[in-house]
Design goal:
heterodimer, A: mainly alpha, two-stranded antiparallel sheet, 66% helix, B: alpha+beta, two-stranded parallel ribbon, 5 helices, 7 strands, elongated
């Protein structure tokens, strides 16, 4: 078996070289759906970070007890539990945001980033490495969401996180905060990231 | 085939017992985790449930003026710093204890007169429960507002039931005859235009409105006459 990356490598990889959105193209449902505003994107990234961290550490702690053919059931059970906690927490303390995000918080259960990290890292490595991996991937996911959300909100409403940045003369490009804007922005940013990483080599 | 059934019939109890124990030995982690996680979630619900309910109640109370008086008048009242007196009541449809449906009803009074009612009702949607608030006029004969408190319908389709634009077609409708959902453009006064691609969600909401009216209308009318001395 090839040697596994250590904690520091896992952490660093998640941010850019193996960014879950731009490099692995995972978890695109929330990436496209909740990036019409920076606040929603940050909340989503926070919820995913919480679930990913808890699920990774939990999976890593029980990794020696896992039966290969039952591991997906255990992953899903673990993830669903932490997603439910995150969902209830948002509904209790960030009620309006919880209504804005609606079903996308419960849908974190089927976010492939988390099950992928449980499978690739947490079920094979120590809790510390798993936690570092979760943090790296979460930061990578958060950066991706925020970059898309910032472009969409700025062009779509002239504001970022509700603060007006473009002059009032800016004709708000309504399409940017609608679903097509998500695909346009994501496609262009993905191309940009690929072009930059290729030209670095 | 015959051989298989004969074989199944003669499996001794001790063998099936071994299979059961073998399965349990494999699945014990899943079962144990399910118990632990279940208990954790129950704890979370006990702790956070009341806060979430308080949030919903708060939102309900904020919505009552708009649902009873309409957006324009509600805004005007808020601007003039006036407010409605809202009383919370628990009502049921009066059926036998088995199938009885319970509702929370908010009575909205302005300077002593009943101006309308807001009924909170819960029903099954396409994906999950839908919770909504229904505003009725004082005589409970006309719909004055509709608001979706909680829904988990399909994003992009069913969740359009929460859009103000779709909800607006309920406002001003008479509760008789009861509302029906149509798919190709509402014509008659009691018809509701379905959200395209979300007929089930649309029907759920409309049915919840109809059911609540049927269950409570008589009670609300008699309550109005009892408290207002019949002046309506």
């Amino acid at each position: 078996m090839a040697t596994q990356p250590n904690a520091a490598e896992r952490f660093a990889q998640g941010i850019l070289p193996e960014n879950p959105v731009y490099r692995q193209l995972l978890g695109l449902c929330p990436t496209l759906a909740v990036t019409n505003g920076l606040k929603a994107a940050l909340t989503m990234a926070g919820a995913v970070a919480f679930v990913l961290l808890c699920a990774n550490v939990m999976t890593s702690l029980i990794r020696n007890l896992l039966k290969p053919h039952l591991r997906i059931v255990v992953f899903t059970l673990t993830i669903a539990t932490f997603v439910t906690i995150a969902d209830r927490f948002l509904a209790a303390y960030m009620y309006q945001m919880s209504k804005t995000l609606g079903p996308y918080i419960p849908l974190i259960i089927v976010n492939c980033i988390i099950i992928c990290r449980c499978e690739v890292c947490a079920s094979k490595q120590s809790p510390i490495t798993a936690a570092a991996d979760a943090l790296g991937q979460s930061i990578g996911f958060g950066l991706a969401l925020c970059s898309i959300a910032a472009v969409r909100e700025l062009l779509g409403t002239g504001m970022i996180a509700g603060v007006r940045l473009l002059p009032a003369a800016w004709p708000d490009w309504g399409v940017m905060i609608l679903p097509p804007g998500a695909f346009l922005t994501f496609g262009l940013l993905l191309g940009l990231v690929n072009w930059l990483s290729r030209s670095k080599k | 085939m015959t051989g298989d059934t004969q074989h199944a019939a003669i499996v001794p109890d001790s063998v099936s017992g071994t299979i059961l124990i073998g399965n349990l030995a494999q699945a014990w982690l899943v079962l144990a985790l399910a118990l632990i996680f279940g208990a954790t979630l129950a704890g979370v619900q006990i702790f956070l449930g009341p806060i979430i309910e308080a949030n919903k109640l708060n939102e309900t109370l904020q919505k009552v003026p708009e649902l009873v008086l309409g957006q324009a008048l509600a805004d005007k009242m808020a601007a003039e710093n006036q407010h409605l007196d809202i009383t919370r009541m628990a009502l049921s449809d009066g059926a036998g204890s088995a199938g009885r449906r319970f509702y929370t009803v908010y009575e909205a009074r302005y300077q002593g007169d009943v101006r309308g009612w807001v009924i909170k009702t819960v029903g099954q949607g396409y994906a999950d429960k839908i919770e909504l608030l229904l505003g009725l006029s004082a005589d409970a004969g006309r719909i004055t507002g509709l608001f979706i408190l909680d829904q988990k319908e399909t994003p992009g389709l069913g969740n359009k039931i929460a859009d103000a634009q779709w909800r607006a077609q309920f406002i001003g409708k008479s509760v008789e005859p009861s509302l029906t959902v149509v798919k190709n453009g509402a014509g008659a006064g009691h018809e509701i235009d379905a959200v395209s691609g979300a007929t089930i969600s649309s029907r759920s909401v409309t049915r919840m409105v109809d059911t609540a009216v049927v269950d409570l209308r008589q009670q609300l009318v008699s309550r109005l006459h009892a408290t207002d001395g019949g002046k309506g």
